[in-house]
Specification:
heterodimer; A: about 500 residues; alpha+beta; Rossmann fold; D-amino Acid Aminotransferase, Chain A, domain 1; Dna Ligase, domain 1; 4 domains; eight-stranded antiparallel sheet; 17 helices; B: about 150 residues; mainly beta; OB fold (Dihydrolipoamide Acetyltransferase, E2P); 2 domains; nine-stranded antiparallel sheet; four-stranded antiparallel sheet; 17 strands
Chain lengths: ~500, ~150
């Protein structure tokens, strides 16, 4: 049978999946909103179907249109990537009903894990430890607020408010003082309603000083469920991960075995098939608690791929095709670190930034992997998530991986749009990062009043010198003449700074 | 040659000196060779510099640091806005908490914006009197748009 895969996503994950399909010899279809026309991912697909609509809801979230795109383009399978429709059980069901292969777990598994409150109940029943807390089912705002307030008193402060349909830090609030509770609860509800159409909130005790450790699992339809070890993703800002690594720097073989077994039990409890991630909090006491299961490929999957040698996206394709997974026994080799490159102003509360990518020159060399959704000449717009790319390094030891990451970040040149590159570079020197003792509050602990770049007078003066000299030399006037080299052509050997030969 | 730039602080005057094939400023040295810019810092270390301009802004990458310098024509005003609060990012106004004529205290929430599905609070930077509110809930704002004006009370 000829399989053509439609990738219902955009940006860097669409690139990752489209490339994996091409490597597997499968045909590929991209879907693309008008404001993504000409994006890198559309160039990696055999066919592109334009989505009609002006908003995310009417393009990448429009199930009917995407299934119709699959039909009209001859696609026989749909890979959802992450975000967008990846954890929508109704979409998984609609895909199957349309006679297409869904590259992901069953709608039932997505449902059980996607509703975080149901997931907590399922895990309790399966004997997997969950964070102490309470679920509140009330829909009506006044009743929900009252029930939440009472639950908060029982759970105790500090606590976390989380949206039952949440993810990616949306609809989440930490509350330290009961006086702030109402405003936080209203904000969380509003964000949850806007992002997920579901304002239900649950409460978890805030376990400060905890590590965020997650276990990658793979399960095929032949009854085999395995884990691929852990990733540590403690370093977060605004509840979003920025620095991820594998293996966990403080992990022991015994704890890996215990957490791995719990993750496999969690997957089996919902008859999971495909790639998924079970997230845990590892408390200072050494106890670990189930946070949630992500029923999709994850942003930080490359660090696991680099240390285990397993191509997780390729395994997803294999499993969805009904084959047995190809990976053997777990073998962890060396150390991998990923950082997320965001278009954001780290010195200004991590606010999203926009602008042109006048220069986009990623680092190169052994042990470096770049998963990017953009390239030089693109514009960063406010239409989508500000994550531009992921930089991943591998080295034989953690110490060397950090050294490599520092070198790679120093080499990474992005001009025209504010990015978090310098923030990530300074992060590599934070004592807790160097020692591997990071927790979910490391960034706030290190920079309680917000981050601003450490620099020195000479460097500032030299940058002013460079800007001044570039202006005096008229370097900007060559930008247009140099446009051909941006398109990937080598500069003409007949063209020099001052003279142009016909 | 003289240039004037503004970054995050006060404007800076740069008096560029050309010595032989090199440009110098405050003990730093820059040479051009081929397409490249080579910078020698005061401590003797040598680095490749990258520079690109968009609008009036020069972006410079040097030794792992990125700088953003807005070039100002000689004599141009440096005042970006008069006590106004501007949108830090393009987005949508979710809620406005204050009205014209209301007094606010430093740190008080004035408005909530939403961009990229994240909420962002606009707070008063000083005690003052609200003299203008330029947007209402559900309005779209562009980056840098003045949102409200506050007259400082000392």
């Amino acid at each position: 049978m000829c399989i053509n895969v439609l990738v219902a996503n955009r940006g860097e994950i669409a690139c990752r999946v489209l490339r994996a399909c091409k490597e597997a010899g499968l045909g590929t279809v991209a879907v693309c909103a008008a404001n993504d026309e000409g994006s890198l991912f559309t160039e990696l697909a055999d066919r592109v179907v334009m989505l009609q609509g002006d908003t995310i809801a009417t393009t990448y979230l429009d199930q009917t249109q995407i299934i119709e795109a699959a039909r009209s383009s001859g696609a026989t399978a749909i890979h959802p990537g992450f975000g967008f429709l990846s954890e929508r059980a109704d979409f998984a069901r609609a895909v199957a009903d349309a006679g297409l292969i869904w590259i992901g777990p069953s709608p039932e598994a997505i449902e059980k894990m996607g509703d975080k409150m149901t997931a907590r109940q399922t895990m309790r029943a399966a004997g997997v430890p969950v964070i102490p807390g309470e679920e509140v089912e009330e829909i009506d705002e006044t009743a929900a607020l009252e029930a939440l307030r009472l639950a908060a008193e029982r759970v105790g402060y500090p606590l976390l408010l989380k949206a039952s349909s949440g993810g990616g830090g949306k609809g989440m609030r930490a509350v330290h003082d009961p006086a702030d509770f109402e405003q936080a609860a209203l904000g969380a509800r509003r964000e949850a309603v806007a992002a997920f159409g579901d304002g239900r909130i649950y409460i978890e005790r805030l376990l400060s000083g905890s590590k965020h450790i997650e276990i990658q699992v793979l399960a095929d339809a032949h009854g085999r469920t395995v884990h691929l070890g852990e990733r540590e993703c403690s370093v977060q800002r605004r509840h979003q991960k920025v620095f991820e690594e594998a293996p966990g720097p403080t992990m022991t073989p015994a704890l890996r075995e215990a957490m791995g077994s719990a993750a496999v039990a969690a997957a089996k409890a919902v008859n999971y098939v495909g790639a998924g991630t079970v997230e845990f909090l590892l408390a200072t006491s050494g106890e670990f608690f189930f946070l949630e299961m992500n029923t999709r490929i994850q942003v930080e999957h490359p660090v696991t791929e680099l240390v285990t040698g397993v191509d997780i996206v390729r395994e997803q394709l294999r499993i969805a095709g009904g084959e047995a997974m190809s990976c053997g026994d777990l073998l962890i080799r060396g150390h991998a670190i990923e950082v997320r490159l965001y278009a954001e102003d780290a010195a200004n509360g991590f606010l999203p930034a926009v602008g042109p990518l006048l220069v986009f020159r990623p680092p190169e060399g052994p042990g470096i992997r770049l998963d990017t959704g953009v390239r030089e000449g693109d514009d960063v717009t406010p239409n989508y998530d500000p994550m531009l790319a992921k930089l991943i390094v591998w080295a034989p030891s953690r110490h060397e991986a950090l050294q490599k990451m520092r070198r790679a970040l120093d080499e990474f040149v992005v001009l025209g749009t504010t990015t978090n590159i310098r923030f990530l570079r300074e992060l590599c020197d934070v004592p807790a990062v160097v020692s591997g003792t990071t927790t979910t509050t490391t960034i706030d602990d290190e920079w309680p009043n917000g981050w601003s770049p450490a620099t020195n007078e000479d460097l500032v003066a030299a940058s002013l010198l460079t800007a001044s000299a570039a202006e005096s030399l008229g370097l900007h006037q060559r930008t247009k003449a140099g446009a051909s080299s941006e398109a990937g052509e080598a500069p003409s050997p007949f063209q020099t700074i001052t003279r142009r030969f016909p | 040659m003289q240039h004037r730039f503004v970054g995050t602080g006060d404007p800076v005057e740069v008096n560029l000196v050309k010595e032989g094939g090199a440009w110098t400023y405050e003990g730093q040295r820059l040479e051009q060779y081929g397409e490249r810019l080579k910078v020698t810092l005061a401590d003797g270390s040598v680095h490749l510099a990258h520079a690109a301009k968009t609008g009036d802004v020069w972006w410079v990458h040097l030794n792992g640091h990125t700088f953003r310098w807005e070039r100002m024509e000689a004599g141009a005003s440096t005042k970006a806005n008069d006590g106004g609060l501007t949108a830090p990012m393009p987005g949508k106004v979710l809620e406005v908490f204050v009205e014209v004529g209301q007094t606010v205290i430093a740190g008080e929430a004035l408005m909530v914006l939403e961009a990229m599905k994240m909420e962002h609070r606009i707070v008063a930077t000083s005690d003052g009197l609200v003299t203008a509110v330029h947007f209402k809930a559900n309005d779209q704002v562009t980056q840098g748009a003045p949102l409200l004006s506050i007259e400082e009370i000392n």
